[in-house]
Write a structure and sequence with these properties.
Chain A is α/β, with parallel strands linked by helices. Chain A is built from 23 helices and 24 strands. In chain A, the strands form four sheets. Chain A has an eight-stranded mixed β-sheet with strand order 6-5-4-1-3-2-16-7, sandwiched between helices. Chain A is globular. The model of chain A has no long low-confidence stretch (mean pLDDT 97). By secondary structure, chain B is α/β, with parallel strands linked by helices. In chain B, strands 1, 2, 3, 4, 7, 8, 9, 10 and 11 form a nine-stranded mixed β-sheet that branches. In chain B, strands 5-6 form a two-stranded antiparallel sheet. The longest helix of chain B has 15 residues. Classes of the chains: A alpha/beta, B alpha/beta. At the A-B interface, helix 1, strand 7, helix 9, strand 8 and strand 9 of A face strand 2, helix 2, helix 4, strand 12 and helix 10 of B.
């Protein structure tokens, strides 16, 4: 099924309101009953470096982004230079007319390696040196160029608002481009205005100022650009309730639903937004009494994991949220939690690594790391979500897993999911069950002797929360006996190791298949894609496109990483001609794990490690080469600035 | 039920410190303090780091959480913040709290949770066989060191004062009565309390020994040892900040007092300020039911076993249709 969609893109220097504008654009489309898939790209920088945002819009649900841009709103010259060639024939570019004479190679924020690339491009295509020369090249490809005098418009708006100092309102360039975009797309003006007002609703008169700017720009474009821009955005009427949210927000809501009442964190991209969002909503509405989530910003990630573990011992459902560098610091704490059977949750947003890596970009190179992090052997559960909806439900489920099996649980996510925004029918959560596992209370313990790490058949010992009368017990990072006191005795050691480790067998047995694996496409086809995490959306869309052409293949999304669903995957791979591993890392880590666990080696790899997420277009192209026997064993994807 | 120190002993755990170790004194001081405070074992959580001192919770009958090297305070913070009704006492060695865990020490002061932190200060890393700890003085060569200590020592009480601890005291492992009284005051203090407990290490510290503290090397004319330790009470020291106007002065005076070392070493309470709102008080302003229904006690579920949370406040903001 080919999805008809419009891909709108805004770009500009960081701090110029690209995100805000894009949020307005997406919301306005949502108000019109349309589905939105938004993707955000930004530098590790506060102000000045290039950032951009895609909003892909359709009447049908969207799962990923595509390469082609239909309308580009350029706040600055760099955006034109970087993205001009992504705009398709009959697409459009909105550009500041004051930038037309800017010399491309004089743009100060262009990094030297990029200048070399564009220098080559200019030479090959005999391009002149100004932005205007570049746009002439686009026009030859049938791209419409819409030059807009941003400053002149701001002066007119300033007059209407009684603001003389234009520098105070230059930030509204972002909203101008929305007004112009919606005019060109002939989209319902009132919905755009409503999105502006709602976005700025907490900022008093700023909301009205922006609404005025939006309308001014809308009128300007309607009067000025009469040429026939063929792309249209039309609102449709829907009856269902929908939400527009990011992965960070979905995780935060899921956590609250799942009973998380303590969240610790140390600021890190792309995880911190989740904690801040939780803190902003700390007081919870419940069907019972007053409840709240306590969010603690700790001094480092070491304190974050260990204070979350401490909180978990008291009976609070507790989590910490981080990214690769932060998790590196948490590793010793993870080992302690594993040894002491602490139900602590770690929400892990992968980003471009190693080291500081690409701090604001995407990556999936930490699979092996989370599987093996921590000295020694101890049980852990790892659940990897593949889209925003899964983020929500998984974020809630992991607390049940953690408490039921008394193990640390890692909820594995990535930057692409954290920062993308999507519309969904409102999540149904009315019947989300809380399973706290085996807990003994003061009453249960009366007259009895309690041993925290009592040997049992399943390996799970009933828990008692710190502070419970009649239940005094001990924890230690040392090997311990049933009471929780230090023990180095070989016989106790053997039993204690086995007690802890065998809990995983129970997890494997009890977790339903749909939480372990996701099945898409044609499972009977002779080719199957294996993947995990955020490539899910692009893969499903690509498979659907290929199916239209009669090219069939199945897709298995691996959701549970530990315990690894070895048996199920083995069955899936049986007799397949092509096993295609798709992920965002260099080594094809999931492919390696599959080989280790099942003995089956994927024969094709489609990998990307540029820090930018895969698009449907890229995955489609790469898979098509595989299915038509034209592909190398290893394809490395490159799209995205 | 009034409990005695013996009720806080753990019968079947052998205390495996070296004979003469100060940890025995500290353990007794802690047990006596808990008994005199009228606490019951289940009301207390003792959190420790790694090292000889880290084993102490196993010898005290209350909840014991023996954690990682340097991390007693983060665990303690999580426990106290999630269930503020618990009496949380964190303990650790000088290397644990002022070396590997120094960052947590500083930030515990800023946070001012209402709990207690006791550092066992013996100048060496005992369990790894006698390396220099952050409190060992420069140029001192305790017996296991291959070379004299090349670094300056950290000033534990000074660091506590400038980090925002609202109670800072020092005691001595072999003056169990003083130690017990100091720990009691620390536990009763409203805010983050710090106790530095001076402690000989009979095995590895041959400089600040029991005899050295007792002044065996400096006998008076009658042949009586002149103890190096003296009590701040006895010189009329008033550590209590009664008005914000005197806070800075009292803090600076306390800081100055920490400079005394060698032949005269003060023990007792250096500084105490209960005017500062604790973390619990600050957070209660935002979440008024925090103390009555803290995170550890919240229900999470409704009568059908479903999550009790209504996500409306989140969803309303996110709704587009």
């Amino acid at each position: 099924m080919v999805i008809k969609s419009i891909n709108w893109m805004a770009g500009g220097p960081q701090g110029s309101g690209v995100d805000t504008a894009s949020n307005v654009f997406g919301r306005a489309c949502g108000y019109g009953g349309l589905y939105v898939f938004g993707r955000r790209e930004y530098h590790s920088n506060i102000k000045g470096l290039h950032s951009y945002f895609h909003q892909r819009i359709s009447t049908q649900p969207l799962l990923a982004n595509v390469n082609d841009v239909n309308l580009l709103a350029a706040f600055d010259a760099e955006t034109v230079v970087r993205h001009m060639n992504e705009v398709v024939a009959e697409g459009g570019i909105i550009v500041d007319s004051a930038q037309l004479n800017t010399k491309v190679l004089d743009i100060p924020t262009l990094p030297p390696e990029f200048k070399t690339e564009i220098g080559k491009f200019m030479k090959e295509n005999a391009l002149g040196e100004t932005v205007n020369d570049w746009l002439e090249y686009s026009k030859k490809r049938d791209v419409h160029v819409f030059p807009v005098p941003y400053m002149a418009l701001l002066i007119q708006i300033g007059k209407k608002l009684g603001v003389e100092q234009i520098s105070k309102i230059t930030r509204m360039i972002n909203v101008l481009t929305i007004g112009i975009s919606f005019s060109l797309l002939k989209y319902d003006r009132a919905l755009g205005e409503k999105a502006v007002l709602d976005t700025f609703s907490e900022k008093g008169k700023i909301a009205d100022m922006n609404a005025l700017a939006f309308n001014h720009a809308y009128d300007y474009a309607t009067e000025t650009f009469k040429d026939n821009f063929k792309h249209r955005l039309e609102k449709i009427s829907i009856t269902e309730e929908r939400i527009f949210l990011t992965g960070n927000q979905a995780v935060a809501m899921g956590k609250v639903l799942g009973g998380c009442r303590v969240q610790t964190y140390y600021p890190i991209t792309p995880a911190a937004d989740e904690s801040e969002y939780l803190e902003a909503h700390e007081i919870l509405k419940t069907s019972g009494g007053d409840e709240a989530i306590l969010v603690i910003q700790t001094e480092d990630e070491i304190a974050a994991i260990n204070s979350a573990s401490g909180a978990a011992l008291t009976g609070a459902r507790a989590a910490t949220s981080t990214s690769g560098p932060g998790f590196s610091l948490m590793v010793e704490g993870l080992s302690w939690a594993g040894n002491s059977e602490v139900p602590v949750v770690i929400t892990y947003y992968q980003r471009g690594a190693p080291a500081t890596g690409l701090p604001t970009r995407h990556g999936q190179a930490d699979l092996r790391f989370v599987m093996h992090a921590g000295h020694g052997e101890f049980p852990r559960i790892i659940l990897a979500s593949g889209d925003i909806k899964e983020c929500f439900y998984d974020a809630a489920k992991v607390f049940n897993l953690a408490e039921k099996y008394q193990v640390p649980v890692i909820h594995l996510l990535d930057k692409a999911m954290a920062n993308c925004s999507q519309t969904f029918p409102v999540f149904d959560y009315a019947n989300f069950k809380i399973d706290r596992g085996s807990i003994l209370t003061e009453k249960d313990l009366e007259g009895k002797e309690y041993r925290r790490f009592q040997f049992t058949e399943t390996g799970i010992s009933p828990r008692v929360m710190l502070g419970t009368k009649n239940g005094v017990h001990w924890y230690t990072g040392d090997e311990h006996n049933e009471e929780g006191h230090i023990s180095e005795e070989p016989s106790n050691r053997k039993m204690m190791m086995e007690k802890r480790m065998k809990k995983l067998e129970l997890v494997e047995k009890e977790v339903p298949i749909e939480d372990k694996l996701g099945f898409y496409g044609d499972q009977k086809a002779e080719s199957v894609v294996l993947s995990w995490g955020s490539p899910k959306g692009a893969i499903i869309e690509a498979i659907n496109l290929l199916q239209e052409e009669g090219l069939r293949l199945g897709f298995v999304q691996i959701r549970m990483i530990i315990p690894f669903p070895t048996g199920e995957i083995k069955r899936v791979l049986e007799g397949k001609k092509r096993v295609i591993d798709i992920e965002h890392n260099y080594n094809g880590q999931l492919g390696q794990v599959v080989k280790e666990q099942t003995g089956v080696t994927p024969n094709f790899h489609i990998l990307k490690y540029t820090g930018r997420p895969m698009t449907t277009t890229e995955v489609y192209d790469a898979l098509k080469l595989v299915l038509t026997d034209q592909a190398a064993e290893r394809q490395v994807l490159m799209f995205g600035s | 039920m009034v409990l005695k120190p013996i009720d806080f002993k753990v019968a079947d755990v052998y205390a495996d410190w070296c004979p003469g170790c100060g940890d025995f004194g500290i353990m007794n001081g802690v047990q006596m303090a808990f008994a005199e405070l009228g606490l019951e074992p289940h009301q207390i959580v003792m959190v420790s780091g790694i090292g000889c001192s880290g084993k102490e919770p196993h010898n005290v009958k209350c909840f014991g959480v023996h954690t990682l090297h340097g991390r007693a305070l983060p665990f303690a913070m999580g426990i106290k913040a999630a269930n503020p009704a618990l009496e949380v006492v964190a303990i650790g060695g000088d290397g644990d709290g002022l070396g590997i865990g120094a960052g947590h020490f500083v930030n515990a002061g800023r946070r001012d949770l209402d709990m207690t932190y006791i550092i066992h200060n013996n100048g060496v890393y005992g369990l790894t066989k006698g390396q220099a700890s952050p409190t060992l003085r420069r140029d001192e060569k305790t017996k296991a060191l291959p070379r004299p200590n090349i670094n300056e020592p950290v000033n534990p009480i000074g660091l506590a004062l400038i980090s925002g601890f609202t109670f800072a005291a020092r005691s001595y492992a072999y003056d169990v009565r003083h130690l017990k009284d100091t720990i009691k005051q620390a536990v009763q203090h409203k805010g983050m309390a710090f106790v530095e407990c001076l402690q000989p290490c009979p095995t590895y510290n041959d400089i600040t020994t029991k005899d050295w503290y007792a002044g065996e090397d400096r006998k008076d004319a009658q042949g009586k040892p002149q103890s190096r330790l003296y009590k701040l009470d006895e010189i009329g020291w008033d550590p209590v900040v009664k008005d914000w106007n005197e806070d800075f002065k009292k803090k600076m005076a306390a800081l100055e007092k920490t400079q005394e070392w060698g032949d005269r070493i003060p023990i007792g309470v250096f500084y105490k300020n209960e005017l500062e709102p604790t973390f619990q008080e600050r957070y209660s302003k935002r979440v008024p039911f925090y103390l009555t229904n803290p995170p550890a006690k919240q229900k999470l579920v409704d009568d059908n076993g479903n999550s009790n949370v209504d996500l409306k406040q989140f969803l309303d903001e996110l709704k587009t249709s």
